[in-house]
TrEMBL record:
Needed cofactors: Mg(2+); thiamine diphosphate
Stretches assigned to the Pyruvate dehydrogenase E1 component middle domain: 541-760
Residue stretches making up the Transketolase N-terminal domain: 275-360
InterPro entries recorded: PDC_E1_N, PDH/Transketolase, PDH_E1, PDH_E1_M, THDP-binding, Transketo_C/PFOR_II, Transketolase-like_C_2, Transketolase_N
Residues holding Mg(2+): 292, 322, 324
Gene: aceE
Reported function: Component of the pyruvate dehydrogenase (PDH) complex, that catalyzes the overall conversion of pyruvate to acetyl-CoA and CO(2).
Ranges for domain Transketolase-like C-terminal: 791-915
Name this protein carries in UniProt: Pyruvate dehydrogenase E1 component
Native source species: Rhodoferax sediminis
Molecular functions per Gene Ontology: metal ion binding; pyruvate dehydrogenase (acetyl-transferring) activity
Catalytic activity: N(6)-[(R)-lipoyl]-L-lysyl-[protein] + pyruvate + H(+) = N(6)-[(R)-S(8)-acetyldihydrolipoyl]-L-lysyl-[protein] + CO2
Tree of life domain: Bacteria
UniProt xrefs under Pfam families: PDH_E1_M, Transketolase_C_1, Transketolase_N
Amino acid sequence: MNAPLPLQHLLSAMPNESLTIDPDPQETAEWREAFLALAASQGPARARQMLDELARLARAGRIGWQPELSTPYFNTIAVDAQPVFPGDLAIEERLGSLMRWNALAMVVRANQAYGELGGHIASYASAADLFEVGFNHFFHARNDSAAAPGRPEQGSAPAGGSAAHEVASVGANRHRGDLVFFQPHSSPGVYARAYLEGRLAEQDLMHFRQELTAPAAQTGQGARGLTSYPHPYLMPDFWQFPTGSMGIGPISSIYHARFMRYLTHRKLLNCEGRKENGIHVDKRRVWGVFGDGEMDEPESMSALTLAARERLDNLVWVVNCNLQRLDGPVRGNGRIIDELEKLFAGAGWNVIKLVWGSDWDGLFARDTTGALTRAFAHTVDGQMQTFAAKDGRFNRDNFFGQNEELARLAQGLTDEQIDRLKRGGHDLVKIHAAYAAAAAHTGQPTVILAHTKKGYGMGSGGQGKMTTHSQKKFDETDLIEFRNRFNLPLSDEQVTSLSFYKPAADSPEMQYMHEHRQRLGGYLPKRETACDVVPVPAIDSYAAFALAANGKEMSTTMAFVRLLGGLLKDKALGPRIVPIVADEARTFGMANLFKQIGIYSSVGQRYAPEDIGSVLSYREALDGQILEEGISEAGAIASWTAAATSYSVHALAMLPFYIYYSMFGFQRVGDAIWAAADQRARGFLLGATSGRTTLGGEGLQHQDGTSHLVAATIPNCRAYDPAFAGEMAVIIDHGMREMLVEQKDVFYYVTLMNENYAQPSLPAGVAAEVIRGCYKFNSYLPIPDNGYSAKTSKNVALLGSGAILTEVVKAAQLLAAQGIAAEVFSVTSWSELARDGQACEQRALAGDPAPGQPFIAQQLQASQGPMIAATDYVRAVPEGIRAFVPAGRRYLTLGTDGFGRSDTRAALREHFGVDAQSIVRAALHALARHG
Ligand SMILES: Cc1ncc(C[n+]2csc(CCOP(=O)(O)OP(=O)(O)O)c2C)c(N)n1
C-alpha cells in the first residue's frame, strides 16, 4: 500500500520510546541492520514478507504486539515513484492563480456591495490546487451523447481544439462522467473556473449570493444569481451534488459509488472500465473533496467500512487537511492527518498521505539523520497552523531553529524560500502523483490526506489565521500583496477595483484549459436531466386487490408489500425498482421478496443459508435487487438518494422505495432528506409502523407523531397518510406517473400502518380527490329506529387520516346512534390541502380576481356543523388547514402531542384523545357551543 521510504527515514522512524530503555542496544542494532540489508538487497516486497512472518510468530506466541497504523509524517509516494507530470506546470499555475483571483474578487465584491451576504475565500484558497489537478487531468465529464463535446455556448471561449484532442474526445464518447463532490465553501473557485471556461458570464459572478435580485430571477433573462454552496435545486443545470451540510457529501459519495456497482452488477448500466467497439471506456469514479473538520461528522465516518467491504475502488476521497475548521484548529493538540490515516487504514482504505511539496524533497534527501522526522513527530497541528500564519523568518527561527541539524538544513534557503516551502496539497506534481496512484489502485477505496494551508496566499491578514474562515474583506495593501504573490497580470487599478480577469481566447492558458477539458469529455460540474420514460403499468394490473378490497382485512403495509410484489413483476418497470430496507424487511412482511428478487451482494452468497429449504429463504445474489442496508438509516437514505437521482446522474431512471420505521425517517435523517430534495430526488419514502398510537407496545422512542409535520416543510415532497389500501394504491400509481412518465422532480412520503382492519373498496371516481388530499368517505345519518329524524338532527363533519380514520368512522356511528348526522371525510394529505389553500391565498394576495376556492373548502362546503379533525400525529398537522376550511364553523383538532407510551392501541388512543369516544366528546362539545 505505502511506497518505500528512503532508508535514512526508516532509520530515523524506527526508534521509539521503548528503545530509551533498550536492555541490549547491540542486539537491537544487529536486528535493524539485518532488516535494512534485506530491504536494500531484496526490495520492499521481501521486506514486507519478512515482517509478516515476524508478525505471525509474534501473534502465535501471544507476544502482545500490535502494528502501528500510522506512518511517519511523509508523503506516501516516494519521489522516485512519482510519474512524470503530464502537463505544463507554468500554465497550470497561471490558470490556478486566475481562479484564485476571480474567486476572491467575486466574494469581496459581493460583500462590498452588501455586507450581509457572506461568502468564503479561505477554504478555496486551500483547495484550489486540489481542484485544478482534478479539472485538468482526472475529473471526467459526461459525454455519452452522439455529438462530440462542444464548447460552451455562453461566453467568449474560442472554438476548436487540436486534432489530437478531437481524437481523444472520440475515445471518451461513451463515458457517462465521474461524480465530483466539491467542498461547499469552495464554490467560488468552481464558479471562477466556469467563468474562464465561458459557462458563466462576468455578470453572473457579479451576482454571487444574490439569487433573488439577479436579473434572471426578476425577468427570466440575463445574469443569474450564483448559489452560496452547491445547490442543484437552485442551479439545476450546474451543480449535481449538494454538500453544504457537513457530512452529507461524504456519506452520499460512498453510496453513489456503491450504487454504480449495483447498476453494473444488475447489468443495467456498466460503470466499470471496459472496451466498447474497440475503444477503451474508462471506469467511472466518484471523487469527493471534503474538509478535515468535516470528518468529525458521524455521517462522514459511518460508511467507511462499507466502502472497504464493497471494495469500492471507484471511490477517491481527497481530504483537504488545512488543519483548520471554522473556529480554530481541527486537532490543535494532535495531528489530524495521523488520526485520519489510522482511522481510514483501520477501516480498510488505501491511504495516500500527501504531506509535503516538491521543494521539501531536497531537504529530506539532505536530512541524513532523520531530524525532520523527529521534528514533525512532536509538532502538533496547532503549532503547524502557527507556522502557516507566520513568515519565513519566524519559521527559520522556530521550526528550523529547534536544533543544529534542522538549522543546517535551512542554511541555503532565504526567508522567502522558507516561507514558500509548499505543503503537499499545494504542489501540482505531488497532487497529480497522488491522484494517479488513487485512480490506478484496485480493490480498495482510496483516501488522499492532502496537507494544505487554510487561506493559502491570503497574506498576513488571512493565511493560517484563526479567523480566516469567514474573512472576506481585503484592503488595498492585501489585494496588491495577493496580486504580487500569485504574479497576476493585473494593474494596480484592476486590483483595487476588483476587476475580473479572463485571458484572451487565443492565449496559451485558455487554449490549454479548453483542450484539457475536451480530453476529459467536456465541462463540469454539469447537471443533466434527460432520461428515458419508464412506462407505468395500468393500476388494475397490479393493485386490483387494493382498489376492490371488499372489506378484506389487512394493514396498509401488507397491501403495499403485495402491490410492490406486483410492480416488480412488470417487465419494463420491475427492473427499475430499488427496494431499500434498513434491517426491517421482516417487520414489514417483506421476507417473501428475499427469494423472489434477491438481496444485492457484490460477492453473491458464500454460505448456505440456515433456511435454505424455505420459500422465504434469505437469498443474497450479485444481481439481487433489494438493498439491505443494515442498521444505518443514514446509509439507507444515502442509498435511496443515489437511486432517486439516477435519472440525472446516470441518465437512467430508477425508482427507489425505501421502507422504514417512520420515526427513524424525518426525525432521524431529516437533513439528509432535505439534501435529497435539493438534489431533486424522485422516489418513494414509506414511513411504516407509523402513527403514535397505531404502533402499540413499542413506546416513546418508536412512535412517530411528527413525520408529517416535517415532510410538509419540504417543497418537493408530497406527503400522504392514507387510511385504506385503495387510497394508497392510487397515490403510488400517481406518484410513479409523475416521476417516471411526466418526469417531475417530486418525491413521495407515504405512511403505512401495521394495524389490520377491514379495507373498503375505493369508491368510484374519487382517485383525483385522493391525490388532492380529501374525499367524502361516507355519511352516517341518525338511525330512525332510535326515534331520530334526519331532518331535525344536528350535523357534524368528521375528518380523519391514516388508521385514525377507523376511529372517526366509529365515532360517526356512535353520533348517529345519538341522533347526530355525521359526514366522514378521509383526508389523505393534510399538507397537500394546506399547500392548495396557500396557493389560493397567494393568488388572492397577488390581486388575481379569480384566485379559486381552497379544495378543502370545496370538499366541506356541502357538509354542516362543526368540523372535527383527528390524526395519529401532533395537532399541528391538521391545524395546517385551519385557514382554509369553510368560514363561520368551529374547527376542532385532535392529535397525539406529547411522548408516546408502551400500551395497547386502545389504551394509547384513549390516552391521547384520538379514539372514537374522544372524537364523539369533541363533536358534542362543539355542537353544545355552536349548535
Ligand atoms: C452540518 C453542518 N454543521 C455546521 C456547518 C457550519 N460550517 C460550515 S464550514 C464549517 C467548518 C468546515 O471546516 P472544514 O471541513 O475543515 O473545511 P475548511 O473550510 O476548513 O476547508 C462549519 C462548521 C455546516 N455547514 N454543516
